[in-house]
Design goal:
The protein is mainly beta. It has a single domain (about 25-280), classed as Jelly Rolls, CATH 2.60.120.200. It is built from 1 helix and 15 strands. The chain starts with a helix and ends in a 6-residue tail after the last strand.
Length: about 290
């Protein structure tokens, strides 16, 4: 009997030590025209042909080089999870003869009941205006960029391209996305931890990148980038952003849908998603 109890205790200890294995909750290859698992919203979200890319002949199109477009896609799945990895293969293109690009792209975990609901256009990126979300954003508009007011005066310095985390919920006072303002690790808001890409990394007209956003149970948000095109393959699993949010913000403290968001206003960009995947708990960089 004593030996049996010892074996049971050993097995129980081993079970406690083995971490929970990650499950893939959603995995979609938009290059095959597949939108299974996603709900497309807005005036421009659709599958389109991608010119000049044999590896990715189709993509989910969120915006194009036209004004006042908003494109959003939500997962059909709504779930609360302890942590997750949200992975998306993304290309942002722009005709530079039209001026500076805008406005940006975001990957979100958002609390909405009506999946036809989208956020505001332009600088709100089809995201801000919703009541509760945590997101990773890529900004492309000069006024929302990093640095001084002079730096933000054009899109030549490269500081118009930035990465950041956004947190909005009923406890966050500043829930708008405002030029020249950034959020805080403790109080939330927009553009938390805003940084420019690593040296040599070009996002707009830089080819397809795989962005992996790891959202941890302790509030740590880490994002990795991997170049998928010939022009950017020197970047492999590069950590481009890491912030630790105050747990009091409860960035994952709700059942949410995962979302893909982009918008244009008076300036434009083409935003295309080749694939998307969500795993929970979070996984190592892919």
């Amino acid at each position: 009997m004593g030996k049996a109890r010892m074996l049971f205790a050993s097995a129980l200890a081993l079970a406690v030590m083995v971490p929970c294995q990650a499950a893939t909750l959603v995995q979609t290859d938009f290059t095959k025209g597949d939108t299974k698992g996603w709900i497309l919203n807005g005036d421009s979200a659709k599958i389109v042909d991608v010119a000049g890319d044999s590896a990715r002949p189709k993509a989910l199109h969120l915006t194009s080089d036209e004004g006042s477009q908003t494109g959003v896609a939500y997962t059909e799945l709504k779930q609360q999870v302890p942590s997750f990895s949200f992975i998306a293969d993304v290309q942002i293109r722009h005709d530079n003869s039209l001026g500076c690009p805008a406005d940006g792209f975001a990957m979100s975990f958002v609390n909405v009941d009506d999946t036809s609901t989208v956020g505001g256009g332009g600088g709100s990126m089809g995201l801000f205006g919703l009541d509760q979300f945590t997101a990773f954003e890529i900004n492309t508009w000069r006024d929302q960029g990093a640095g001084s007011e002079t730096d933000r005066g054009d899109c030549v310095t490269g500081k118009n391209e930035t990465f950041a985390i956004d947190v909005v919920n009923p406890t966050v006072d500043n829930n708008a996305r405002t030029p020249g303002e950034t959020g805080d690790l403790k109080t939330g808001g927009a553009k938390i931890g805003q940084v420019v890409p690593p040296a040599g990394m070009k996002i707009v007209n830089g080819g397809f990148y795989r962005f992996q956003w790891n959202a941890s149970e302790d509030g740590t948000m880490t994002v990795y980038a991997t170049g998928l095109s010939d022009s950017n393959k020197q970047f492999q699993k590069v950590k481009i952003l890491e912030v630790k949010l105050d747990p009091a913000l409860k960035p994952l403290g709700f059942a949410g849908h995962w979302g893909l968001h982009a918008a244009t206003g008076g300036a434009y960009q083409t935003t295309e998603i080749a694939a998307a995947r969500i795993d929970s708990p979070m996984i190592d960089p892919q």
